[in-house]
Amino acid sequence: MPRPTEALLDRRRIGRAALALVDKKGDFTIPELAKRLHVQPSSLYHHVDGRADIVELVRLEVLNKLDHTLLRSHSWDQGLAAWARSYRSVFAEHPAAIRMLATAPVRSPELIDAYEGATTALLEAGFPREQALAMFVALESFLLGSALDLSMPEVMIEGVDPERHAVLTGCIAALPAGISRPEQAFEVGLLALLEGFRASLGTEHARGAPR
Amino acid sequence: MPRPTEALLDRRRIGRAALALVDKKGDFTIPELAKRLHVQPSSLYHHVDGRADIVELVRLEVLNKLDHTLLRSHSWDQGLAAWARSYRSVFAEHPAAIRMLATAPVRSPELIDAYEGATTALLEAGFPREQALAMFVALESFLLGSALDLSMPEVMIEGVDPERHAVLTGCIAALPAGISRPEQAFEVGLLALLEGFRASLGTEHARGAPR
């Protein structure tokens, strides 16, 4: 006979519990997850299709605040920028989950829809079909690294020697006020990446590459 | 009386053992590390100055194959590109260490030298002092995310529906042969980032921004 809590078990609750474990130690095991949910491991399998399925529930839980329609509601670059800022923010709340999610294939139809939206926006903007997915993945790599950087202290280099590291000392002294170090790095990188994409678009247009 | 192995304890050995633990589970504790080295925790403190010092030894161990002089041996963009390809490769061998190292301040003089080299190259190229560090950090964020992507399977999206995801299906079919998926994404992103930096240089020059 199922215990009372088992009746309440659903995919959302499993995803939440798995994310809580991943937030603590970067990973989870099925026995740990079952224990946290006060059920037998076998009960989990009434709701999920193995470990990879649970990893995907963790991904959905992390990304549930992210609005993928941003990708299609503006020009390609404004859409990517808005989506990117939001994506970095949601991952910054779960730095320990980044490695797991960055290395496990995406499987949820609703997340694959985001890739469909992004590639559609890029193709409509004139980017070549063979490059659109690579551009989006490159952006994601930058965003995941930038999300980790938000857990790095504001002072990210300790023991800079004003003589041995004179140029660096000057650069640190010149850092703009009113914006945090990781925020500035993120904005500089995001704008550069989008500008670089834009420049390749010009090239493609100029040489009339087939699309 | 110290045990035989204690006589052999040195900072390099401590760094190697800590990295082995981090490779397995993304983190280490002092008792685990002492156990692995067959010493008492107190013996470690004859060689290291606390946990942050050990984290830095892990960083040195990961980066010991990286040649930071690349940053200063070419034009700024060729130097950054060569250094970047090498940096991604060394981190790709230690994906579980990425989070720890991306969120702990850099403290080793020899690694701070790399920041000095990078900022010097960027300033000599004409980039403004207030932006050089942000550019380098943005590049590092991209590289760490790209290193994680090398642990993602070649097929990174499972269950693409040819009807619901028609554009994405076309993009995947059009992926270039002869280059792996993560490799293509990395090169596309790296070149875009550098091109975006180059474009901002033009702007700075054009408007004669103070440096």
Name the average pLDDT of chain A. Answer: 92
Shape verdict of chain A: flat
Strand content of chain A: under 5%
Radius of gyration of chain A using CA atoms only: 21 Å
Q: Helical content of chain A, roughly?
A: 55-70%
Which regions of chain A have little confidence, pLDDT < 50, spanning 5+ residues? 205-211
Oligomer status: homodimer
Give the SSE string of chain A. Answer: HHHHHHHHHHH
DSSP strand tally of chain A: 0
End-to-end CA span of chain A: 60 Å
Major sheet description of chain A: none
Largest interface: A-B, 80 and 79 residues
Structural class of chain A: mainly alpha
Number of helices of chain A: 11
Describe the structure.
The structure is a homodimer of 211-residue chains. Chain A contains 11 helices and no strands. The first copy, chain A, is mostly helical. Chain A starts with a helix and ends in a 5-residue tail after the last helix. The interface between A and B is large, with 80 and 79 residues.
Which helices and strands appear, and what pairs or packs with what?
2 copies of one chain form a homodimer.
Chain A lengths: L3 H4 L3 H15 L4 H7 L4 H4 L6 H13 L12 H17 L5 H5 L6 H17 L3 H21 L16 H8 L7 H26 L5
Helix pairs in contact in A: 2-5, 6-9, 6-11, 8-9, 9-11
